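Predict structure. Chain length: 438.
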Amino acid sequence: MKRIYINQVKDYIGKQVKITGFVQTIRDQKNIKFFLIRDISGIIQVVVTKDKEETFKNSSGLNLESVVEITGLAKEEKQAPEGFEIAGESISILSLSDPELPIPVIEKGQQEETDQSIRLDWRWIDLRKEKNTLVFKVWTLMEQAFREYWIKNNYIEIHSPKLIATASESGAEVFEVKYFERKAYLAQSPQFYKQMAMAAGFEKVFEVGPVFRAEPSFTSRHATEFTGYDTEISYIKSHYDVMKEEEKTIQYVLQKAKDKYGDEILKTYGREVIVPTLPFPKISMKETKEILSSMGVRVDKDGDISPEEEKKICEYIKKTQNHEFVFVTEYPVSVRAFYHMRDENDPKLTKSFDLLWNGIEITTGAQREHRYDILVSQAKEKGMGLEQLQFYLNFFKYGCPPHGGYGMGPNRMIMKLLGIENVRDAMFVYRGVNRLTP
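Prediction complete.
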């Protein structure tokens, strides 16, 4: 008999079925036993009665989270979860769990969830929880939707190297590794290689890949290794073209997420997926600071915004424009990378932006400087070593279209999509300053 998924049992009422999965709960009433069995598709009740002697006996040795194979009759039962159950006729133990679980999969009653640091030690067990599994079902759909949009719109996928000879971008926040008889670094961004693709004439590219940041940060939004979504497009007039393209992409992705998982997200996380209208609100850094000041919010740096300011400006936009997203534009030269194009009307500003969603930055983007002489000048101004940068600067010596792009953190996207408070719960396995296991 072929195994079926639990969510298919309803299509086999009155027939013999075979399921496999984890034993989630056990209720023993002497002459009858009730089990909740869980697979990736759902949960179903299995009933074993004493007249099935061999099966009844075999089931006595089961522990929570053991893996079993069960055959039996599919039935309708109003009292059972989802209205269906299986009358168990045979149970095979595929893997017997130790009776003492290090962390619970199901918290009972008012029991508080286990401390996050302990849950991360036993991440594979923590991931068995329905709400945690949903994170990666949604992420799978989200990534598929991003790819669909990019491919439909003639983007080319690239895979840039993660071992590089020089510290990328600013020279800081990189991991140094031994590379045969010399040093190498783990890439903190595919930025230089996206621009290489523009110089190669690819016009539109995207990359989904690992990013490494040697930031000694312990916040709820940072990790030392994470997945990045990056794009770059040619023949733009300004950074507003990049923003226009990104907002269309996000709208497409969130519509797909709402269509497939909107109800489940609302049920599990209490979060309604709102598909944003176009265009997204856009305010300059100067305007942002003025708004925050008028709200009585303590303003930190003049040219950048703190996590608290991000939260407050998003609350303001939600209240005044009923929108969850806002682009903050025109960051000053002092806080942006040397390759960001300067504003021709105010050379102290860059043609750059951050995209905030419900209180957190999810994207940084800009129009890039594609003119060789100006790029060299800006690198010198920032104190960059031209010799180490020469491989990158060469991309612009032989013709390169005007271009720009953005880098996005899908972990933060998932946080906001589901209403998760900590990025560590939005990652398959978290890497941080003090965590290299499991």
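Summary: The two ends are 37 Å apart (CA to CA).
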